[in-house]
């Protein structure tokens, strides 16, 4: 069983995930059209909507933050990162223990989702305003309606008003318990904050890295060298994640949150997969004789029989099929034989030509 530390935020969200997944039988289901590119800098990430249970998204829940919500979420997380880690090599204004900054971002995201659905409102209950619905009794309107200043005030307070960092032992508290000590009066809403813990961890993991994000249906392609591309944005995972052995048989499991864009590794023709083991998946039959298998997706953005180019957005990762945690399963097969994809992935990661799948080993990458 593979075990990961998925979100090491203050040691609280340590998810030990054992993976179970397998190749699927190719079955046709309907799919959408290829996505156009977005963003001048090749924006690559989407952030899912908050769900109560990220591991079991229902089809009607497969939705993403709107541009407005995403912009506000990005401001909240980047503001907290700047305050707690510094910027441009400078020292942090408020140094925190390792992981505590991310924890603060998770708490702030849950508060803004519950209070305003990540909208910078110029109205609210009684005298509440803005993303955090901060009360004018405590926060000047110029603070509560400015997402950067409102986030700072939530984190470090104002003269005479406590911030999150002033709450004793806050990094170890449940999100609701910490939040109600800053947001006031919010005790009667404490239970609502608990519903979004898992989403906040996943969204923070995506946004903390500072990778540009864009809404789905406009996901930019991955750069492709030598007609090959990584199945995930290169800066998302360290190199050694692509070298992990797989349980049972040759393949690799890549730990990423549900909703992470996946890209065509090779040019080829798409077959759609929908079965109990692979879940929602695709197979790309390439001209090099290899079949490139993607499993456990939450959404597919290419149709049966579609031609794709290397680096094209093909869908979003997830946790469908026989899987016990969000991840992308990647396999390379020649005929019915599973080959070890590790060398292929490392070569592409390093900017080298991808090895022919016929030259990949059939043993040595599983346990
Ligand atoms: Zn797997």
Automatic annotation (TrEMBL):
This is M23ase beta-sheet core domain-containing protein. It comes from the Bacteria. One of its GO terms (molecular function) is metalloendopeptidase activity. Transmembrane segments: none annotated. It comes from Virgisporangium ochraceum. Residues 251-336 form the M23ase beta-sheet core domain.
């Amino acid at each position: 069983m593979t075990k990961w530390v998925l979100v090491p935020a203050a040691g609280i969200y340590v998810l030990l995930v054992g993976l179970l997944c397998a190749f699927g039988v190719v079955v046709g289901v309907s799919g959408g059209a290829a996505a156009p590119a977005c963003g001048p800098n090749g924006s690559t990430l989407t952030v899912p909507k908050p769900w109560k249970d990220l591991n079991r998204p229902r089809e009607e829940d497969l939705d993403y933050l709107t541009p407005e919500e995403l912009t506000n979420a990005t401001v909240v997380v980047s503001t907290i990162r700047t305050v707690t880690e510094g910027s441009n090599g400078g020292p942090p204004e408020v140094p925190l223990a390792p992981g505590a900054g991310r924890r603060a971002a998770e708490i702030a995201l849950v508060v803004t989702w519950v209070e305003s659905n990540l909208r910078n409102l110029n109205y609210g209950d009684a005298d509440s305003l803005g993303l955090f619905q901060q009360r004018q009794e405590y926060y000047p309107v110029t603070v509560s309606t400015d997402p950067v200043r409102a986030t700072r005030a939530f984190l470090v307070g104002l003269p005479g008003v406590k911030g999150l960092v002033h709450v004793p032992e806050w990094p170890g508290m449940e999100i609701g318990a910490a939040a109600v000590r800053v947001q006031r009066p919010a005790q009667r809403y404490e239970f609502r904050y608990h519903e979004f813990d898992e989403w906040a961890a996943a969204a923070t993991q995506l946004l903390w890295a500072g990778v540009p994000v864009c809404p789905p249906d406009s996901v930019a392609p991955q750069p492709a060298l030598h007609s090959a591309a990584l199945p995930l944005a290169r800066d998302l995972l360290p190199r050694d994640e692509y070298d992990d052995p797989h349980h049972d048989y040759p393949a690799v499991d890549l730990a990423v949150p549900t909703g992470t864009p996946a890209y065509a590794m090779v040019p080829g023709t798409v077959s759609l997969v929908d079965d109990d083991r692979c879940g929602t998946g695709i197979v790309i039959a390439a001209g090099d004789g290899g079949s490139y298998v993607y499993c456990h997706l939450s959404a597919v953005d290419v149709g049966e029989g579609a031609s794709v180019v290397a680096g094209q957005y093909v869908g979003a990762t997830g946790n469908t099929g026989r899987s016990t945690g969000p991840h992308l399963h990647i396999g390379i097969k020649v005929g019915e034989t599973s080959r070890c994809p590790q060398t292929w992935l490392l070569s592409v990661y390093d900017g080298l030509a991808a090895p022919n799948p016929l030259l990949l080993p059939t043993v040595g990458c599983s346990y």
